[in-house]
Design brief:
The chain is of the alpha/beta class. It has one domain: 3-Layer(aba) Sandwich (Rossmann fold). The chain is 40% helix and 22% strand. It is built from nine helices and seven strands. It has a seven-stranded mixed beta sheet. The chain is globular. The protein starts with a helix and ends with a strand. The structure holds S-adenosylmethionine. S-adenosylmethionine (SAM) binds next to β2.
Length: 256
């Protein structure tokens, strides 16, 4: 009953978005200069390190200042916290990638560890419109433009049958309230089913890297793994100086 009216509204809005597919097409953001972007020596050095290690010319020349920082954030986190082995053919998935504003960060990280990278991002609410009348899907198409092997999938992860070497899952819905506030119908609140499916979607020695928002969700996330008998490595607090989020972020890694 608590979410009855909000859920009713979410169901109607979601149905309309899914079926009407409004879009202005060809979203584009001009590149911005990156002068004086870092206010500390540490940050400047870290950017130079990541820039060289992951060959970030393309990212730096094709992003707003804000988006450059957002992508450095995800690259920095992956570089610091995810242990990864080189594999010739690497198949990677991001679950719930929204408008995939951080796609380049993920792309250049995983590209470093493979010869042939396939990076997919899946989003169930891809037709959600922004105030500028572009959809998440159109914004995402801009962020993955010219990234060979990157693909945005508008759909439900539970319908996805492929196997992956790495799954990145940033801020999954672990409790009901954030999902309802996000505008999704409650029938899509299936954290246990989603986690089980993600685990079953791994190739041998595959890994799921999960980032949760706040200590409460993190505790719930670990409980969920426990309920399913899935073991995990605890990373606890993960952060990057490139962006300091108000809510602390925590992480686990699941290996099959
Ligand atoms: C809290 S948001 C996180 C978005 C993004 N990862 C980020 O870090 O900004 C969770 C996202 O997961 C998506 N999502 C929820 N259930 C899904 C499903 N079954 N399949 C695909 N995407 C899903 C939601 O629509 C939402 O965009």
């Amino acid at each position: 009953m608590k979410y009855f009216f909000q859920n009713l509204k979410n169901n109607i809005d979601f149905f309309l978005r899914k079926n009407l597919d409004f879009s202005r097409k060809n979203y584009f953001v001009m590149n911005e200069h990156k002068d004086n972007l870092f206010n500390s020596k540490n940050l400047k050095e870290r950017e130079q390190f990541l820039f060289q290690k992951y060959e970030l010319e393309f990212l730096k020349l094709n992003s707003s200042r804000e988006n450059y920082l957002e992508n450095l954030y995800i690259l920095d986190v992956l570089d610091k916290y995810l242990e990864i082995d080189f594999k010739v053919n690497l198949n990677v998935l991001d679950i719930g990638c929204k408008n995939w504003f951080y796609a380049k960060g993920e792309y250049f990280f995983f590209k470093k560890f493979s010869e042939n990278l396939t990076l997919k991002g899946i989003e169930i609410d891809a037709n959600r419109l922004y105030t500028n009348f572009y959809t998440r899907k159109e914004v995402a198409q801009f962020h993955i433009k010219n990234l060979f092997g990157a693909e945005y999938i508008a759909g439900d992860f539970l319908a996805q049958k492929e196997k992956f070497d790495y799954i990145v899952w940033i801020l999954p819905f672990i409790t009901k309230s954030p999902l309802v506030k996000w505008g999704l119908p409650l029938k899509y609140f299936q954290p246990e089913k989603m986690l089980k499916h993600a685990y079953e979607s791994l190739n041998p020695n595959g890994k799921i890297f999960i980032i949760n928002q706040g200590a409460e969700e993190y505790e719930e996330q670990k409980k969920l793994c426990g309920n399913l008998g899935i073991s995990y490595q605890v990373l606890d607090k993960v952060d990057s100086e490139f962006i300091q989020y108000e809510n602390k972020r925590y992480s686990i890694v699941i290996t099959n």
